[in-house]
Every structure is written in C-alpha cells, then in structure tokens.
Amino acid sequence: MAPIVGYLVEGKDGRHGDPGTGYNYVLAGNGLFLETRNGLLDVRISLAEAEVRGLSPLDPYVTLVHGKVPSGLLQTAVNTMWLYPEEELYLAVVWDGQRYALKQPPQERSTARVSYEVVPDTVLSLHSHGRMHAFFSETDDRDETGLILSLVAGQVDQWPIPALLRICAYGFFAPLPFREVISEDGPLPIREHTSV
Predict the structure, then answer these.
(1) How far, rounded to the nearest angstrom, does the alpha carbon of residue 32 sit from its chain's CA centroid?
(2) Residues 56, 29: contact at Cβ < 8 Å?
(3) Most exposed: 12, 23, 27, 92, by fewest CB within 10 Å?
(4) C-alpha separations of 187 from 10, 20, 121, 183 in Å
(5) Burial of 184 from C-beta contacts in 10 A (0-12 / 13-18 / 19+)
C-alpha cells in the first residue's frame, strides 16, 4: 500500500523518490514545495525558499481543474455579504458536476464568528467579517486543513470590498492574486486588502 505522504527530489536527471497518494513534499533547486491534487484543484506551493545546488528549480502553481471561477459568481457572493454588514457570513463556491454554483449552507452568525455546515465539492470557501478588516484567523487556520481555496472579505460596506485570497493545502497556506482563480470576464467587486 502506497503511503499518504511522499518525499521527492527534483534532480537534474528527473524526479526521484516515492510519491504519496495524498500529497508530496518536493525538494528542488530553489527550496521545499508541497504538491497535491484532488478532483477540483492541482497545486504546488512553496514551503521554504533555499538554494539547493545540483537540483532543478520549480515554480509554484494553482490550477482549477474546471477552470476559473466566473467573476459574476463572486459579484453574487458580494451582493449577499452586503445583506449582512454587521455579521460574519459563509458562502461556498462548489462544482455541481456541470458548472460552478454558489451555496449558502445553514449557519449561525454573529459579529465575530460564523459556524456552518461544510458543503461537499467546495472549491472556494468565502466568509466575510462584516465591518471588521479582512484577515485569516487562527480559527480559519484550524478549519481549513484540506485542499481548498479560501477568501476572506472585510469592511463589506466599502466598494470594492477589501479581501484576501489564499490556497489551503493540508495545514499549509499561500497567498494568491485574485486573477489566479477568478475569471477576467468582468470587474471584480473585491480588492486586495493591504493594511489592518
């Protein structure tokens, strides 16, 4: 039986080691990476930069298996967030087998917390902080332990809404530019959050 975690080396003459069924650590010429995929995402994120002589370098990437999330779906999510300016809100972009869809699962909301039911086939998890700033909390870090994209929006009374986007891969996190995962078929109702 193959192990869940693999340990690989990106040599000049190819890749060496035993791959895992869940994810792989890959030592490359420019550092340590984590690679993994599921039916929705295929990712490689940098865990630590380092010069490792004699190995080939790698580039991080994030690929959505079914293409980027339509910007119109994000606009619908923001419109929903505007309905709850004083509370946190959770939404999920899911793959329904044919296209991306926005879901609002049963949840309990307050000004500083939202608890919700996990929605199967979620590719992008979105939650708002009401009028607070956008930031990923320790609770978010504990909740987002699988392979998923995560967006947090703050100050939902602004336009565009300040937000942060990241890839979550089994307890590791890496920031992402919005256009890496959101299509360019329309303007974005969010902007990169830069200050607290």
Answers:
(1) 19
(2) yes
(3) 12
(4) 39, 40, 26, 9
(5) exposed
Residue 34's closest CA among 6, 74, 14, 12?
Answer: 6
Q: Tokens at residue 158, please?
A: 């602004």
Residue 129 has a CB neighbour count (10 Å cut-off) of: 23
Chain-centroid distance of CA 108 in Å reads: 23
Tell me the pTM. Answer: 0.89
Contact 159, 189 (CB under 8 A): yes
Distance CA 5, CA 115 (A): 30
User: What pLDDT, in 10s, does the model give residues 22-31?
Assistant: 999 999 999 9
Q: Decide if pLDDT at 194 tops 70.
A: no
pLDDT tens column, 113-139: 888 888 899 999 998 988 888 889 888
